[in-house]
Amino acid sequence: MLEDEGVTCLITDAQWFSTQSVADELRLPRIVHRTSSVSSFLLFAAFPVIRDMGYFRQFSDEEMKSEAPVKGLEPLKIKDLPKFLTSEPEGACKLLVLMVQGTRKARATIWNSFKELEELELATLNKEFPNQHFLIGPFHKYFHATSSSILAQDQTSISWLDRHPHNSVLYVSFGSVANIEESEFLEIAWGLANSKQPFLWVVRPGSVKGSEWLETLPDGFLERIVEGRGYIVKWAPQQEVLAHPSTGGFWTHNGWNSTLESICEGVPMICSPSFGDQPPNARYVSDVWKIGMVLENGFEREEIEGAIKRVMVDKEGTEMKSRIMKLKGKVDKCLKKDGSSYSSLEDLVDYILSFKR
After folding, report:
1. CA-CA to 337 of 20 to 30 Å: which in 24, 53, 148, 297?
2. What superkingdom does the record give (predicted)?
3. Is residue 252 within 8 Å of residue 174, measured between CB atoms?
4. Is residue 145 part of a domain?
5. Domain containing 241 — which CATH number?
């Protein structure tokens, strides 16, 4: 197969670290494909040190909510350390260590990020992982908006947005995986209602524990509180929603794709991360790039109401909007000819072609 089809390298996701041995056996260079941020990867790379410091073994659930910084990984806090959807976090840690080791052994890594967003992190990466790095993101800008959706998108979201003023609507979506408790769902509902701000709310069927969809909302809630001001759908065309001029804020779980999509459209964020790389992504949004804020105490209606007003109405939100619009401009520039991601993609092609010479 290698001779007939001219296979010159192996490109695999970072999580498939076992493919490094396949590449070695076939005497092929392996290039790692990494879909998340450089900053979260550097956190994962530090896991052995974090583990030795006792963060996973010794801290109680309450202590893991601490605002104290993680020594050597500022601005991250103890509460930002990744949580795993498993009963054996130590096992998940080992898998991440293997992923990092596999990335270190690879010849190069492709990143879903862009240089201007993570310049300092890229400098650290180059020091600690001296192989080739190609930041060619954001990936989603290369594809049609509907091509990667895993659920049916409700296009009525767009016609509903059309009826609202510019930058007036808060878009709420917590992704395709995370689930919430019924009590949290009710706090979200009342926080949205009490904010008096128009909102488009994605409630994925089955995402509220013990509920099929909206059954746990109080009787008459939709009619009394949100009629005309709020709109609830099962799934939305997210990229189109974020690009819509009426969308002024995004309440998100901070998966890396959602975070990048919000940056690309210049929409400030309210952050409610859940697990994996979401907490460190959210911390960078709030404390490093300063283009959003984290709901630090989970889902409490008063804090939700206050956060919505801060992002959508107050001067603080205007400043976030200004900063994220500057990042949006950098995204637009990096994807054009001679931009950083455009040039990095050209370099990647040349790098792959060099294996045939």
Report:
1. 148
2. Eukaryota
3. yes
4. no
5. 3.40.50.2000
